[in-house]
Amino acid sequence: MKIVVAEKIAKAAIDLFKQDPTWNVVTPDQVAQKEQLLEQLKGADALIVRSAVFVDAAMLEHADQLRVIGRAGVGVDNIELEAATRKGIAVMNTPGANAIAVAEHTIGLMLALARFIPRATETMHAGKWEKKSLQGTELRGKTLGIVGLGRIGLEVARRAASFGMTLVAHDPYVSPAIAHDAKIRLADRDEVLAVADYITLHVGLTPQTANMINATTLATMKKGVRIVNCARGELIDDAALAEAVKSGHVGGAALDVFTEEPLKASPYHGVPNVILTPHIGGSTAEAQDAVGVQIAHQVRDYLQRGVVQNAVNMPSLTEQEYVALEPFITLGERLGSLLAQLAESRFEEIGIRYTGPLADWKTELIRNASIKGILQHTTDESVNVINANSVAETRGIRVHESKKEHPSSGAAANVLGLTVTTPKGTLSVRGTVLHGNSPRLLSFDNIDVEAPLEGTLLVIRNRDIPGVVGRVGTILGEHEVNIANFALGRPSGNSGGNAIAAVQVDGPLKEPVLQQLRQQKAILAANVVQF
């Protein structure tokens, strides 16, 4: 493996990569110039950046083997996600690694607002003693409104509780049990903004959260409310908040993030009771070491085992979730490969159906693995579980998914079904996982036929008449082909029609064997599938 670390990260992170002596770790001093970085990207498996290196489509053209980009930090504005996804490159960040640092900064800003600390130090440096005008208030007994209960929001809540604050929060995605354990009352956002003495924001930027603090919402807040933002600058209408502070309706604001950074011309400049810090919430020595070590662990796990954590261009999984999904990811790819090797025309549409408890899982990786299995036999593009859906879209192939929570009585608990539509018609397969990790075919074109999806599989369509099985066995025996598994199937209650045979054999099947099989009158088609 070749790992290019383009920016300075913790030594412990570098050491983590170097634990495997076969891994080549390129350090920041080796790629100080852009030309050096572009050269080192050739043959690299992973690229680690922070915020200074801009990873655009042009740079990625030099990365012929890159599998993952690790961002030691949260924001990924310096990475062209669409370009990375098209090339099948996973992009990961490290949300939560700096949660303690941001939470402590948030509490520090609240204390600074409550006790007028910036103004106190400013007047003292000016040689003034303005003790009477600097009488503050306590956090104890005040209501803290928290918008967003992710890792940072929960860490803020824990610290605020130790100050004796009452906690009320809004987060539609958090478990009530988690809020209850943290002694937080959940409420809708309007109520949180209306009852709070202090408001702190800890949500990402979405169409629903952009400018959530605006003239209208400010008017509903308590007079004297104090607002802290260490999340995203775009959450606040700056002009409206500055005006509300000037009018005295808002008692103060403390902001660490801004719509445009670095902050230049701003409506906050010169406004009393507005504390501004230059996006330093996560800037502690401990946090910077933590994000480096965390991204090193994530990248190593992805390269070694395929575990996806904190990816921003594909679904992220815990290790436990990945362990449960991995056999079905393999199943999806092999079912897709089976269809691709048997189809004799281009694909127009792919249908994917999940049945059983599987329907409630995070199925995006299974979907992409299924598409990968289908497309990797039909294109010279590099197709993997990152870009498979994107490749299908660019080729004009429609992908449909459906889910059925409860399997039919007596059926396997978890079943994955794939259907491909071509100009010549449709092909469909169903499969499951047995014994924890064994991918198994259950049916082909709605004919029940159970066979292992591994090694070499001979798929035969034949007329359901006597003698076919014996003749197939004889031909394979004459060519010294050993049969490992022989599965037969025909439409239920329909003898004398067409049937399916799935024959697993040892070793490859040569063309003369297939030609002899196809010459048999009862055999309509004989194709080999290699897994």
TrEMBL record:
ACT domain residues: 457-531
Gene Ontology biological process: L-serine biosynthetic process
One Pfam family, short name: 2-Hacid_dh_C
EC top class named in words: oxidoreductase
CDD domains: ACT_3PGDH-xct (cd04902), PGDH_4 (cd12173)
Matching InterPro entries: ACT-like_dom_sf, ACT_dom, ASB_dom_sf, D-2-hydroxyacid_DH, D-isomer_2_OHA_DH_cat_dom, D-isomer_DH_CS, D-isomer_DH_CS1, D-isomer_DH_NAD-bd
Molecular function per GO: NAD binding; phosphoglycerate dehydrogenase activity
Keywords recorded for this protein, A-Z: Amino-acid biosynthesis, NAD, Oxidoreductase, Serine biosynthesis
Pathway(s) of this molecule: Amino-acid biosynthesis; L-serine biosynthesis; L-serine from 3-phospho-D-glycerate: step 1/3
Reaction catalyzed: (2R)-3-phosphoglycerate + NAD(+) = 3-phosphooxypyruvate + NADH + H(+); (R)-2-hydroxyglutarate + NAD(+) = 2-oxoglutarate + NADH + H(+)
EC number: 1.1.1.95
Protein task: Catalyzes the reversible oxidation of 3-phospho-D-glycerate to 3-phosphonooxypyruvate, the first step of the phosphorylated L-serine biosynthesis pathway. Also catalyzes the reversible oxidation of 2-hydroxyglutarate to 2-oxoglutarate.
Entries under PANTHER family matching the protein: D-ISOMER SPECIFIC 2-HYDROXYACID DEHYDROGENASE FAMILY PROTEIN (AFU_ORTHOLOGUE AFUA_6G10090) (PTHR42789:SF1)
Similarity comment text for this entry: Belongs to the D-isomer specific 2-hydroxyacid dehydrogenase family.
The protein's name: D-3-phosphoglycerate dehydrogenase
Species lineage: Bacteria, Pseudomonadati, Acidobacteriota, Terriglobia, Terriglobales
